[in-house]
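Following up on my earlier thread - several people asked me to post the actual chain instead of describing it. Fair enough. Here it is, all 290 residues.
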Amino acid sequence: MYTAAKKGMVNMYDINRLHLHIRWVLDKRTAPGWRDKRNNTGEHTFYWIHEGKGTFYTDQGHPVQGGMLAYMRPGLQMDMCSDEQYPLQMTMILFDCAEVGYDEGWTAVAPVTQLELPFLRAFSPDQSKELGLLFRDMYRSWVPGVQGGALLTQAKLLTLLHKLHVPSGTETGAGAESAGLALALERVKQYLETSYDSDFTIHELAEQFGISVSYLRKRFRQAVGMSPKHYHSHIRNEHARHYLMYSSLTIKEIAKVCGYLEEYHFSKSFKRMNGVSPSGFRLQYMKYKD
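Reply from S.P.:
Thanks for posting it. Predicted structure:
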């Protein structure tokens, strides 16, 4: 879902290629009226607010409270203060982030200067509970200077980034109807990803997941960067490429397992999407591998 904009998708980086280095995880319980400055401005920072109230100051004041997540990009100057009666209780994660390329071998490392996330986001009570537990878990599992002491936290932080990049529609302020539609949209996406060997129409999808055809077409393109049909073809094509590279199945067998009615249609579709026939693609890969 998340590939570079030059490939027709919505983000400027591929979330599948993100690699993280965690510098510091801190559970921060502030005193009433506490004040501080963001000193580590060269890295990405998350502040999950478990409880309390306060204000984050950038070029303006931003009221914050429990159940909110603040994301600070590298270079952002910020001051913080706690409420006199309800001091902030937060978990802070300081980390570096880069996109590491891989194309049958490791390629360039490109530091990510800013994640495509809002500065502040509020969540529903259920989401707040889930995220609060995740941040507590990341804090407990991070053991600096110990072999493997950061691995679990890195994996959980990648899980968090996935959650934050998926438009759920259930953040605070979204109505139940909007949340239900967004959930149906995500289920359509998951269905397309796991049913690449099946054929269906847009009307059948809309009816199966209880949403209108117009909503499905419009919102799916907004979220994913392509229509449901094209996304299904994209997933099917990617599976076909991997079968050609890593299996000994014949072209006819690959066509069948990927849901094509016959080898001719598979070959025609594959060449249109990849600029080369399936057999040609397999031959190129084998030469590259040798």
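Confidence is low (pLDDT under 50) at residues 1-11, 169-177. That should answer part of your original question.
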